[in-house]
Give the backbone structure.
Amino acid sequence: MKNKIIDGTKISQKIYQDIKTEAYLLNKKHAITPCLVAVLVGDNPASHVYVRMKEKRAKELGFISKKIFLDSTITTQKLLDVIAQLNNDNSVHGILVQLPLPNHIDSFKVIESINPKKDVDCFHPQNIGKLLIGEKQNFYPCTPFGVIKLLEYSNIETTGKNIVILGRSNIVGKPMFALLSQQGRFADATVTLCHSKTKNIKEFTQKADIIIAAVGKANFLTEDMVKDDVVIIDVGINRVNDFTQERGYSLVGDVDFKNIFHKAALMTPVPGGVGPMTIAILMQNTLRAAKLLAYDTLL
Ligand code: GUN
């Protein structure tokens, strides 16, 4: 039987090989080492874990990685001041503000204040706007582009396919829609974006050739909702109580993996599917941000 698992860890390794080669050449020719700064506000435990994982990978690649920890009570203005300093610091190539920010902070203002040429998350309205109109750009949104790369490396054609995205977040659902609806290879799809107000989601998912689940609810997508030979990409990372684990929880996706597995053609696991790809694309974007300093050819 063919292997149904799309192994994100393995695919991300291939991307890291290319990054390492390019980073080596950049350093040799221009004496530039990519530098990524992560800004973390407050003490959201999941955010701290994600930032640690990003930092670990950046260091493994020989990048410079810095973290700025700020108190959860910081004002929007103070945070804008921190970002202005990073924007003005030529030794900083990529700036990442880990979301979500505390409720009292104006997240839009914060994202808008990041220099678009250092916006390695591709959250800035200028970068996300370019993505929507299919314009060339320096950065791609990490998770959605990671999903495209998973499809590409697994030879899953998307042209003319019915693709259903579950979830309309600015980080995953909407940019995912923008990428898949463009013209081109591993795009050109008929894309449906379902969300919490969609009536009868099952009617859409049952017709889907590919489902991308990004709703943040454990076991949201169940066996009765999918057709045979569907391809499923699970973006969810949910903590569920699990007292067999020392930490008291385990991580699961949005998909009832166990019960859908026999029906699907291909599936991503959680962990080890989309997660490693998100970080790989972030590193690719950081390298591009550093290259912006060295080459005029980038945008
Ligand atoms: N929060 C959840 N996902 C992300 C991400 O990809 N980047 C940032 N900055 N924050 C996030």
